[in-house]
Write a structure and sequence with these properties.
By secondary structure, the chain is an alpha/beta fold. The protein has two domains: 205 residues, inorganic pyrophosphatase (n-terminal core), CATH 3.90.1640.10; 124 residues, Roll (Diaminopimelate Epimerase, Chain A, domain 1), CATH 3.10.310.30. It has eleven helices and 13 strands.
Length: 336
């Protein structure tokens, strides 16, 4: 059974070989939390390597330390050497190994100490030796902040750590819009500001860091790929592969697109599906009492949070869209 993460606090002062990893296609919270933790652990004398299962969006490339992050798919042999030497493995912003794509089986095989820090529902606690799983937390970055403070090392929070943590917090709270932005989140930000955080710079780096083609792509999608089902208070965006190619869309360019239809009056559920090479990827957002996590798990092999989740399908774009419309109709009462 997973032991409380507090039990490793006394062990932090003994230098170790540490690997930190995250879910595939890491977002601001995944990348920010892993880098914040790395910057902290290095100050304690540990040798730390961050390994991403896949590539990542260009808009996180400004984060302090991202140049040292290894892409497992690109540099598998070198990454393996670090995994083989690891005393500790920190798993951040995911709670079950299959969220790491090609790293899945490798992580299962590792015999080192495995430590979880995550805020998603239904963790696979049997796979971890120590950890903390708290769905009430706004982000994994908030949890890394707590980890540093609770372990008695608040003095180690420097500019680099502050920028990484703030990036994940605003990413996962929708810039403090979502219900997850509880009072403690604002206290955290106030603390970071008192330590010299330039929050405006972080916002610019995250949200004003795209190419013109992405803006034109968004216009095209909202004009031509958005369906609104008012009788079900639901909006659907389905994006074919041809659109991605036409507008030269890269990893991360579709981030935030699922949030646009939430601005329509009365909408309770938004679904976005993108036709990727290997599968169709779903994102879901809801307002109020509609449970995205249960919906994604039931219909699309996914999960996540109550009001934000993801899923997948091996069906064609047309078939998975039909499947969604049927699921929407089955949930009519819950969407009223």
């Amino acid at each position: 059974m997973m032991k409380p993460i507090q039990e490793i606090f006394p062990l932090l002062n003994q230098p170790r070989q540490i690997v930190i990893t995250m879910h595939q296609k890491p977002d601001a919270d995944a990348m920010g939390s892993t880098l914040a933790l790395k910057h902290f652990l290095v100050q304690l004398g540990h040798s730390v390597t961050v390994i991403s299962p896949t590539n990542w969006a260009g808009w996180v490339n400004w984060l302090p330390g991202v140049k040292e992050v290894m892409d497992y798919e690109k540099d598998k042999q070198k990454a393996e050497s670090f995994l083989n030497k690891a005393d500790w493995l920190f798993c951040l912003d995911f709670n079950i190994f299959h969220r790491t794509k090609g790293l899945t089986e490798r992580l299962k095989q590792l015999t080192c100490t495995k430590i979880l820090i995550d805020h998603h529902q239904e963790p696979d606690v049997a796979s971890f030796d120590y950890g903390v799983s708290d769905t009430a937390k706004s982000s994994t970055c908030e949890m890394v902040y707590d980890f540093i403070v609770d372990s008695g090392h608040a003095d180690k929070i420097n500019t680099e750590i502050g920028e990484c943590i703030y990036a994940g917090v605003i990413g996962d709270t929708g810039s403090f819009r979502f219900a997850s932005a509880h009072a403690g989140v604002h206290t955290l930000v106030a603390n970071l500001k008192s330590r010299g955080l330039n929050h405006g710079l972080v916002h610019e780096n995250l949200f004003d860091n795209f190419l013109e083609n992405r803006l034109r792509f968004i216009g095209h999608i909202l004009l031509n790929r958005l369906e609104v089902f008012y009788e079900y208070n639901t909006a659907l965006i389905s994006i074919p592969k041809s659109d991605l190619l036409k507008y030269q869309i890269k990893t991360g360019d579709t981030e935030g697109l699922v949030n646009y239809p939430q601005s329509i009056q009365g909408i309770k559920l938004v679904a976005l599906v993108i036709d990727r090479d290997e599968e169709r990827k779903w994102s879901f957002r809801s307002k109020g009492e509609f449970d995205c996590n249960t919906f994604a798990r039931k219909y699309f092999e996914g999960g996540g949070h109550f009001n934000a989740s993801g899923g997948r399908s091996s069906d064609s774009l047309e078939k998975t869209v039909e499947h969604f419309k049927q699921a929407m109709k089955e949930n009519e009462k819950l969407l009223q």
